[in-house]
Amino acid sequence: MVKFTLNGEVQELNVPSANPLLWVLRESLELTGTKFGCGIGQCGACMVLVNGQPTRSCQMPISAAEDSEVITIEGLSEKGAHPVQEAWVEEQVPQCGYCQSGQIVSAVALLAANPNPTDEDIDGAMSSNICRCGTYPAIRRAIHRAAGIQEQLASTDDGGARSEE
Amino acid sequence: MNDQLGDPIEGRGITKNLSRRTFVKIGVLAGAGLTLGVSYRVIKGPEAPPTDAAFAPSAFLRIDVDGSITVMVAKSEMGQGVATALPQLVAEELHVLLSQVSFEFAPAHPAYGTAIGGMQLTGGSTSIRDSWLPLREAGAKARWMLREVAAQRWGVAPDQVQMNEGKAVHPDGSKLTYAQLASAAALLDVPKDVPLKDLSEFRVIGTPVPRLDVPTKTTGEAIFGMDAGPSDTRVAVVARSPVFGGVLRAFDPTGALAVQGVDEVVELQSGIAVIADGYVAAKEGRDLLNVEWEGGEWSTLDDAEILDRLKEAAGQDGATVREEGDIDSVLGSDREPIRATYALPYLAHATMEPMNCTAWVRNGQCTVWAPTQFQNAPGLVGGGARQVAAKAAGVSPDNTVVHTTFLGGGFGRRAEQDFVREAAELAGKVDGPIKVIWTREDDMQNDFYRPASYHEFSAILGVDGMPEAWRHRIASQSILQRMVPSWVPDFATKWAGSSDPTSTEGAQDQPYHIPHMRVTYSRVDLPVPVGFWRSVGHTQNAFVVESFIDELANLAGQDPYEYRRDLLKEHPRHRAVLDTVAEASEWASPTPVGRARGIAVAESFGSFVAEVAEVSIQNGQLRVHKVWCAIDCGIVVNPSIVRAQMESGIVYGLTAAFYGRINIQGGRVVQSNFHDYQMLRMRDAPDVEVILVPSQEAPGGVGEPGTPPIAPAVTNALFSLTGQRIRELPIQLV
What we know:
- The structure holds 2 protein chains of 2 kinds.
- By secondary structure, chain A is of the alpha+beta class.
- Chain A has 5 helices and 5 strands; from the N terminus they run ββαβββαααα.
- In chain A, strands 2-1-5-3-4 form a 5-stranded mixed beta sheet, with helices on one face.
- Chain B folds into 3 domains: about 15-210, Aldehyde Oxidoreductase, domain 4 (2-Layer Sandwich), CATH 3.30.365; about 225-295 and about 355-435, Aldehyde Oxidoreductase, domain 4, CATH 3.30.365; about 305-345 and about 450-720, 2-Layer Sandwich (Aldehyde Oxidoreductase, domain 4), CATH 3.30.365.
- In chain B, the strands form 9 sheets. Chain B has a 7-stranded mixed beta sheet. A 5-stranded mixed beta sheet of chain B has the order 16-25-24-23-17.
- In chain B, helix 3 crosses helix 4 (about 180-185) and helix 9 runs parallel beside helix 10.
- The interface between A and B is large, with 58 and 63 residues.
């Protein structure tokens, strides 16, 4: 039995302890926004936040998630209203879209740690995610835009109304 | 429920993706016509309230009584934007905003067949070209019928009624919505011929309207093949022969069956499937299968042998695919020709979403959920997903339903239906729905690779430095020779065996004016499965042609842009994109210190693209800082999507130029995952500036044409920077 918080809700599951978090999310919990891309921690399609840290869920046994707080793409916002998601729509980032949950989660983590990243910061943080459609230039633009949205929110309401929960 | 489409299925993915749909069933097909004249009835999904008032004047369009307008997208959305651009075509002529329209993926059905053999296929950058007239006509005819109804109700002449943003407007300003008109419009005969808008009247076409699929692709809601299927679907992972053409000799399922969660091991034509309650157990079981494969005649094949075979074939003229002037006498004169040879490797597609397919066979019916580029090929034995699944499952195609999901990348890989065949065969042998998931390694090692090729050039320059003679000999495997027999069993006997346009495109039609020219093709038969890879023959031929012409410009002591320009006097669209990209990149002005620029141009899939790359070497590594890209793709449907496709094609081609190589050793593929088959990442991605050259020509493709010029633009820049001429990809610095 493993117990953790997923997108704000406590989960108690009876699954083999070695099963990767990715497949527990996708198959046991039917949250399919987190994607399988390589299975060896190379592509970032399976990126989720574990205690706020960007984490490759294909590499994390579910036992290691015990007592932790997991946020997936589905848990970022109610209806795609997270600043990063909004910026992704405004910049029209996705093409095939398969890697984008992971890209967005990585960008959320980057902006939480570094609210105003430079291109170099973006290159460093986002190079753990592969996009085969080549949306990299659009992702760069979208992260800058998301930083702007976040800054605007912070200045208008101290950021309190839009915590990342 | 209805007997043709399969029962509506509640479950994961389906509730999100399918159950809210109203299934359209096409009743009677009127001859070979594309769509209109087809009669319809509406089959209700499980949650949809009964309605007999839907207005569906074409297979592509439905207006429901609540006013919702749905465009049936019969092309596969794999990132290239068809789920937006095709609805734009309908919206334009229907006189509605794109935001008033939603889309659904069309079922596999002859109504959606293209002019090419009636195939329902997404490939060759044909989606807009295929749909440009049929979808606009569908919108125009529906608008015409709605206007008739409004005119009758008001008792005015139809031309007194304006149609605007989903409403009919009376001269006095009163309005009727399309929803109010739809039921009555459904009773009218579909008109045979209605005028389409003039280009100058376009309001939706040509505008950068937001993509309809982007919102769900930022929330995790978009349903890909991996996410589709009923909630009690079991998962299978398959052991396949590691050697091309290998044969199963024996296997012992004991280890696999001992894994908790594994419940069946099933032999298939392609290998052995291990079925479990989830992916992890299925994969563990598969890895514990004790399988003995017989390697067969190809178990010693390696890169060296392949290269030898290709070189030998390219050492002589093959089948002539282009002949100008008198090449033999010019090359036979006492002037020493300029010679160069180029070698290109096999490439994997490496779509982000590994191959997968879900299938369910019961009561003589087969239902398939597939991220496929090829839904239907009536009349071809082994064509689209529908025929392939039906045959593999042992049911009739009429009892086979294909649900197309979003595709996590396609690039030509999903034009092959091997992954559908395997899932359907397995589903036919077991109870309940089954999803076959390929590991990344399975995907990488069981691809249909871009063929390796070898090219031998000979050229003679005139006294003015311009080429007088050009001989290009190409040797490679033939994609069509490999592929078509699986569609048409007796193809091999009909096959002339000589040329293959998918191997010679971009070379046989190269645009430079050269008086004496010969291009030949030598087919080399090898067991490596080869297939369509984003821009197909152009990937190799644009690279070698644009590299060799650069070599000639250099030997002639001329500027590579001006040299091309001079040779393209009869090709204004090539010239226009070259001029545009030269101007945007300030070609004539000096580069920053330590950098150099290279240029290349290529026509493919009805579009013309020129690119300039600016490169440097930093810490011993080639770095591409910036790419300028000018495209003339004729009339632009969505400029934002065209720009995105250029960025996409450039990154795809750069990835191949930097890293792409599939090695063969012991009759098998060496690479297995992203650690040894690398992808371009954010830190290596250049800035890209795209310029759309205004054009009123018929639309061309955009999914592929961005790819061909990028590798030669980069390697020509590298030559300019260091003098190293790259004649083999991927790039290796000396």
